[in-house]
Amino acid sequence: GKYISLHFNKMGMIEGGRILDYLLEKNRVVRQNPAERNFHIFYAILAGSSEAVKGKLQLWSPKKYYYLSQSGCVSDPTINDEEDFMRIESALTTMRFTPEQQNDVIKLLATILHLGNASFLHVGSAQINDKTVVDFVAQLLSVD
After folding, report:
1. pLDDT at 24
2. Element (H, E) at 17
3. Which pTM value belongs to this model?
4. How far is 102 from 58, CA to CA, in rounded Å?
5. What is the rounded distance in angstroms from the CA atom of residue 62 to the CA atom of residue 7?
6. Are 70 and 31 a contacting pair, CB within 8 Å?
7. Dihedral, CA atoms, 40, 7, 15, 85, nearest 10 degrees?
8. Per-residue tens of pLDDT for the chain, all 144 residues
């Protein structure tokens, strides 16, 4: 989708504007068209989170996550993911999210990325290939 922001002067005349691209299709989380990226927030947390957060949440390169790598496009030269993360943090602070709440948002996004790496023995099977993925997801969600 597109978000159009128009800027007006005191006289009510348009002085400028900008168009922002955004993606809100819920199926984009699990599948993208070839050469399309997933939601920008995922790349932003991977690029901008502190090393401590990355270690704690096991956040690595986008190539390590099925939900981000399946389309073959893990980067976009027109987007600075690290700067986006700083803007997101600033917006969350402006909206009065506490540091703990901000960490919870990042943890939930990390959980989604990790859950995408869960694979099953065969289609329709309930048997998980690698239990360490779901064990870590359970740890992130604080469930057994």
Report:
1. 64
2. strand 14-21
3. 0.79
4. 17
5. 35
6. yes
7. -30
8. 678 888 889 988 889 999 887 656 777 788 888 998 998 999 999 999 999 999 999 999 999 999 999 999 999 999 999 999 999 999 999 999 999 999 999 999 999 999 999 988 887 778 898 899 999 999 999 998
The CB-based long-range contact list for 70-73 (8 Å cut-off, 24+ gap) reads 70/31, 70/32, 71/32, 71/33, 71/34, 71/35, 71/36, 71/37, 71/38, 72/34, 72/35, 73/32, 73/34, 73/35, 73/36, 73/37
Identity of the residue numbered 115: L
Smallest CA-to-CA distance from 141 within 92, 102, 104 is with 104
Rounded to whole angstroms, how far apart are CA atoms 128 and 134? 8
What pLDDT, on the 0 to 100 scale, is given for residue 2?
Answer: 77
Angle CA 84–112–66, to nearest 5: 90
2-8/14-21 β-pairing: antiparallel
**Rg for the chain (alpha carbons), in Å?**
18
- Say what the pLDDT of residue 37 is: 92
